[in-house]
Amino acid sequence: MITLRKITLENRRAIFNLEVSEEQRRFVASNLSSAASCYVLATNGGQPFPFAIYSDGQPVGFVMLTYGITSYDLPSIAHDSYCILRLMIDKHHQNQGYGREAMKKILEFIRTFPAGPAYYCWISYKVDNLPAKKLYESFGFRNNGEILGDELITVLPL
Known about the structure:
The chain has 158 residues and is of the alpha+beta class. The protein has helices spanning 12-16, 31-42, 98-110, 130-138; strands at 2-6, 47-55, 58-67, 82-89, 120-126, 142-148, 151-157.
């Protein structure tokens, strides 16, 4: 069973050591870099929510959610919306359904509106990241026509 857990002193190293495959590294920042981004966002008015993704007591991935992002280029949909800024499943745990189950838990959490009300959740991905596109679309995310850098913006009404 998939659960989202806080990053703690006890689990931080295990989370920082999770990696995607070599060919996927261009799609997502390292978990250590993402944790540092959480600190920067939190100290500059943002509201990050970093979580370890666990399956039956074992860490298998990482997700970083945000609300009120600052210091990043933002799509028009970003104001008062939640963003799934990072999502990764470790290379040893891919293709086992963990990404899909994690996305269910992520959206359940977002729909509790922990940082405030929102009408949308958005996520961006690189055009050639077809597994991400397929996953996001299966949950109802739709391209809103915006591109930031080399990433498409997809939006889900909450």
